[in-house]
Design brief:
Layout lengths: L16 E2 L11 E11 L3 H8 L2 H5 L5 E8 L2 E9 L4 E14 L3 E10 L2 E13 L5 E12 L7 H29 L33
Helix pairs in contact: 1-3
Length: about 210
């Protein structure tokens, strides 16, 4: 994605954009779809390494409290998802359902907490960018069931957008740390420290936020 020559490459990212929402029919709940792009000032191999390293990815998750790796395709996290007036504690099971190294990966994520269930599919595609950087196109579809889902898209969309921005910022930090150290970062995840912590949530997210409802 091209921008002004004077801008830092890491700032040349597309903001999370909602697409027309589709309400779940029989099961109820709310769907929030977002997509965007990001350019990393690092080779594709480094970005791929970070995005496929559970410890590195744990440090990008909002409110991660614990993280367990079962195998290279399955892992579980206990998180506290920021919701503005508090946090929703949820157990999240993640499965890598498809990958084409070093280009594409897709994950299925299921979460369950008190009064809420979440189903999410997310994927990313990596490609070479100018000057040795890496371009990433990503998308995510989040379906939320229960009282939290009944809050409606106009409430949920800004929260999702806020957390996506936090994850992308934390991901860029992990990529830069891996680039500087010659490998993915390992400090912090075991201590339950996440750059995208619940305290990072703001009731009024910076930047314009748009939402649509059916």
């Amino acid at each position: 994605m091209r921008g002004d020559p004077g801008r830092d490459r890491r700032d040349r990212d597309g903001q999370p954009q909602p697409v027309p929402a589709r309400l779940a029919a029989a099961a109820g709940g709310e769907r929030v779809n977002v997509s965007g792009d990001r350019t990393f000032d690092a080779p594709r191999a480094t970005v791929w390494q970070v995005m496929n390293d559970p410890e590195s990815m744990a440090k990008t998750m909002p409110g991660v409290e614990s993280f367990d790796v079962h195998d290279d395709r399955h892992w579980t996290a206990n998180v506290k998802i920021p919701l503005g007036l508090g946090g929703l504690k949820m157990k999240v099971d993640m499965e890598k359902v498809e990958e084409r190294e070093p280009e594409f990966a897709k994950m299925a994520i299921k979460g369950q907490g008190v009064g809420a269930m979440m189903n999410m599919e997310t994927s990313f595609t990596l490609s070479d960018a100018d000057a040795g950087g890496t371009a990433m196109a990503w998308s995510a579809e989040v379906k939320i069931l229960g009282p939290v889902g009944s809050m409606g898209q106009r409430v949920l969309q800004p929260i999702v957008n806020q957390q996506v921005r936090a994850v992308l910022t934390a991901l860029d930090a992990q990529v830069q740390e891996a680039l500087a150290g010659g490998g993915s970062a390992t400090h912090g995840a075991e201590e339950g420290v996440s750059p995208a912590s619940p305290e990072a949530y703001e009731a009024e997210p910076e930047g314009p936020t748009t939402s649509t409802e059916d």
